[in-house]
Amino acid sequence: MIGMSRAPLVAAVALMAFAGCSQQQPSPLLTPAEDVRAADTFRVQFETGKGRFVVEAHRAWAPLGADRFYTLVTNRFYDGNKFFRVLPGFVAQFGMHGDPDVTEVWESRTLADDSVTQSNQEAFVTFATGGPNTRTTQIFINTRDNRRLDAMGFAPFGRVVSGMNVVHQLYGGYGEGPPGGGGPSQDRIRDEGNRYLNRFHPRLDSIIRARVVRD
Questions:
Q1: 80/206 Cα distance (integer angstroms)
Q2: Is the model's pLDDT at 163 over the cut of 50?
Q3: pLDDT at 215
Q4: 64, 79, 97, 126 - which has most CB atoms within 10 Å?
Q5: Contacts of 194 (CB under 8 A, 6+ apart)
Q6: How far, in Å, are 115, 185, 195 from residue 82 at the CA level?
Q7: 178 near 189, Cβ under 8 Å?
């Protein structure tokens, strides 16, 4: 029997592998679809270097915010995020992706405002906003009673139901960012991602993974 030459066989295998790679779907974080409608109530467990905490989200409190949170978590957006703005006695904030390409995509996916139905008391979780209808991916956890934020349109969608002691342990030694302080710059996070944070603010705590644990 005449054997097949190894060269054509290798070429055929390489061609098949190339074809398989070309058919791979791009990351949903770079090509996001519409937000998924979340369950009425669901829980998300965050694993950090300091331990775990659990956020219970309530769609009735802020439906658009809850849906966005669910969509981001199920697409693993928060994995690897840094707690870049931790101001003890105020908030612990996260939600800027470590990859600037991902941040750029999601910055254009703004949400309309939800009505404020809950108060920004300690342990309540809320999307950050830069003004009306500008919410995207950034979230803060209130680490004290911040009910003064209610009148400013900050609409909580959930609360930490376990592990609030972990939230209080997150590193907050860098302080506020520019222009008010010398902490992490959101502009540089946007442009450089975790490369910037790892170099200049290495003590920041990270989210190892965030997963829905109960729909």
A1: 6
A2: yes
A3: 52
A4: 126
A5: 80, 82, 98, 99
A6: 28, 13, 11
A7: no
